[in-house]
Specification:
This protein has a single domain, classed as Aldolase class I (TIM Barrel, Alpha-Beta Barrel), CATH 3.20.20.70. With about 325 residues, it is α/β, with parallel strands linked by helices. The chain is built from 8 helices and 14 strands. Helix 6 links the parallel strand 13 and strand 14. The protein is about 30% helix and about 20% strand. It binds flavin mononucleotide. Flavin mononucleotide binds next to loops.
């Protein structure tokens, strides 16, 4: 049995939010929290991030849109959700009851949509932060033929969106970035310079799964986003790179399944960590990871979990 009084040593800060521990649930893998309430004690998490909300309802991409891959999965959900109006009417009432930080992930198809979503959501006291999903690999921004398909692949676009949204809210802004770039430092810096309070990375990596016999792509959309343990080394690399470029906190994610994985992300520079695909295997994984971090801190005499951030030994 873990002594909960020790949890104060696990506090971390993301913008204005104080997280009771560094463990968060990632967008798109924890629903709107209500779906998870019977499986996990949500109040123990540092924060939860909702499925990305768009201004208007979206059906998402055609099915099949999930396929298992070695040590991971590919998804091409395409931001299926019922839109802002439904979110406010039907999701906010449950989120208001939560005793943890609620981060609402938003995805816009224009700067004005990002602004509108931010303005409306900032009216609700239960919303602690807005996460800007600039990195969904399953939604194309601009012409398909252009090389830059995601907002988070273009530092000028990142700067524009974040600085416009910054003017619309006093809430903590987290910018969710993609690993589908050559130089994450440039992109992370653009988010920081535009006033983002934190960055979250990594979103999924572009991938394809094919059936050799039918010769067909296994996803109706052909291309999807890869997540799960298969992407962990890539994610650690991106967090390590971003940590060298920015001063704002990083929420690190990509394949985290255990407390040790979470600690590795913190050593590479993450202030907090996100659990995604792991929730599909065990919806209570977050509490296991929190207990594991507490155990690690105790057995390794870590007085303050913040002392681990960026302390990877490289020589
Ligand atoms: C089924 C599925 C749906 C997702 N939907 C979203 C989403 O709506 N918004 C978002 O920012 N990220 C979304 N993601 C990405 C995750 O939040 C996370 O960044 C990614 O899966 C990497 O973490 P993981 O390896 O722990 O899953 C989704 C991931 C999966 C697997």
């Amino acid at each position: 049995m873990v002594n909960k009084s020790k949890m104060k040593k696990l506090n971390v800060k993301i913008g204005k939010m104080v997280l009771r521990n560094p463990v968060t649930a990632l967008s798109g893998t924890f629903g709107y929290a209500e779906e998870m309430k019977d499986f996990v004690d949500i109040s123990r998490l540092g924060a939860i991030v909702t499925k990305s909300v768009t201004l208007n309802p979206r059906n998402g991409n055609p099915t099949p849109r999930i396929v298992e891959t070695p040590s991971g999965m590919l998804n091409s959900i395409g931001l299926e959700n019922k839109g802002l109006k439904d979110f406010i009417q039907n999701k906010i009432p449950f989120l208001e009851k939560l005793r943890t930080n609620v981060v609402v992930s938003i995805a816009g198809f224009s700067i004005q949509e990002f602004e509108k979503l931010t303005e409306r959501l900032s009216e609700y006291n239960c919303v602690s932060a807005i996460e800007l999903n600039l990195s969904c690999p399953n939604v194309i921004h601009g012409k398909k033929t252009t090389a830059k398909r995601l907002i988070a692949q273009d530092e000028v676009a990142v700067n524009k969106v974040v600085s416009r949204v910054r003017k619309k809210t006093k809430l903590t802004i987290i910018t969710k970035l993609t690993p589908n770039v050559t130089d994450i430092k440039k992109i992370a810096k653009a988010a920081e310079n535009a006033g983002s309070d934190a960055i979250s990375l990594i979103n999924t990596i572009f991938g394809i799964s094919v059936d050799a016999y039918s010769r067909k792509a296994n996803l109706a959309n052909t291309v999807g986003g890869l997540s799960g343990p298969a992407i962990k080394p890539v994610a650690l690399y991106f967090v390590h790179q971003a940590y060298q470029a920015v001063k704002i906190p990083i929420i690190g994610s990509g394949g985290i399944m255990s407390a040790e994985d979470a600690i590795e992300f913190m050593l590479c520079g993450a202030t907090a960590v996100g659990l995604g695909t792991a929730n599909f295997i065990n919806p209570a994984v977050a509490t296991n990871v929190i207990d594991g971090i507490m155990h690690y801190a105790k057995t390794n005499r870590i007085k303050n979990i913040n002392n681990l951030i960026g302390r990877i030994i490289t020589d």
